[in-house]
Amino acid sequence: xxxRDSEKAPQAAKNFLKLCKIKYYNNCLxxxxxxxxxxxxxxxxxxxxxxxxxxxxxxxxxxRFFPDEFDSSLKHDQIGRVSxxxxxxxxxxxxxxxxxxxxxxxxxxxQKNTIFGQVVExxxxxxxxxxxYTDSNDRPYQVIRIKHTHILDDPFPDPVGLDDHIPPRxxxxxxxxxxxxEDDKFLEEEGLTPEEIEERIAxxxxxxxxxxxxxIGDIPDADVVPPSNVLFICKLNPVTQERDLNIIxxxxxxxxxxxxxxxxxxxxSLCYGFIEFADERSCxxxxxxMDNVLIDDRRVHVxxxxxxxxxxxxxxxxxxGTMKSAAKWSAxxxxxxxxxxxxxxxxxxxxxxxxxxxxxxxxxxxxxHRDRNQRDHRDHRDHRDHRDxxxxxHRDRxxxxxxxxxxxxxxxxDKQSSGHQKGxxxx
Length: 427
Prior knowledge:
By secondary structure, the protein is α+β, with helices and mostly antiparallel strands. The protein is built from 9 helices and 11 strands. It has helices at residues 10-21, 54-59, 123-130, 194-215, 242-249, 280-290, 322-332, 345-358, 364-426; strands at residues 32-34, 38-41, 81-84, 97-100, 115-118, 230-234, 255-262, 269-277, 294-295, 298-299, 301-304. A hairpin with a 2-residue loop joins strand 9 (294-295) and strand 10 (298-299). The radius of gyration is 37 Å and the shape is elongated.
């Protein structure tokens, strides 16, 4: 990089050269990479919120920043412009700087960021950093550092006390748990395809997010794996019950438990649930054959469960979360909807044989007739429940009306009695 505008921005140029001299930039990360815009570095704290000017290093907090220096002849009109980063706050230049990577002029940066240099060699390295893979905050997934800085010519005299701040060696590089280290083979060195690179990035991102979820208590452990014998089912009809799903899914194997998640206040179905099989093979078979199947006039969707709520007890943690609370309530407090009673081996075998027999082409009419009868029975039951509820509401309103009438009659009698007594005493 060439500091060729030292006469037009002397403070910025001197600040940069003296910070290089005290190895201030060695092992600094490129923490902000916005493709075809800028690449930013210069913060030893590696956050984008730190950094001191050379005057701040020498004289303390009151001299941390230095003012902007603008010249009308200096513009952000080409790749490789080197400017001070000030966070869009005037006169807050310290140590952070950026290099432009845009092919078109960046006029809106003129007169806002102090230009003090130009990259004249190594533009291929700049553009390689420009194409780095980044997260949603423009932070590269892989560590990209400034290894060393070498000064070829320094026209500015050293300030008093600078020699005391020159370390014998560069600071130790900081390692980051959420980033791929620079010595790890990651891109062309390993011959990975773009799809494999995306997969590796996704795995590392998922690992980082899992660790965050573990810290805030949403999952019991970052390495926890959802059970492979539990099937998730959604888009259910609100009238579908656990026993209905037991009849349908028991053809694939032994079912350990079925749970339809319900509202913890009303007990109404939330139209999704979980089916736990005794083995993984039964769960896989149900997954391949029951997706988009019509159950109670609704085409359901099934998938392998990603919930780990039931695994919290294995890690010595209390159950938590809305889904778990709702499931616990529906199993324990909603006595009108009990889980199907466990079946003996002979009953399960007979039920499985019956299910296979009804699946034959010659028995499809019988199966459809049976399904219609079951739906009619459920509709009749729901109608009866609704009718009973209306009767209860009517009785409650009638009792409330009678109670109010009695209260009003008693109040009227008290007023009459009080008036009669008052008139008698007046006489």
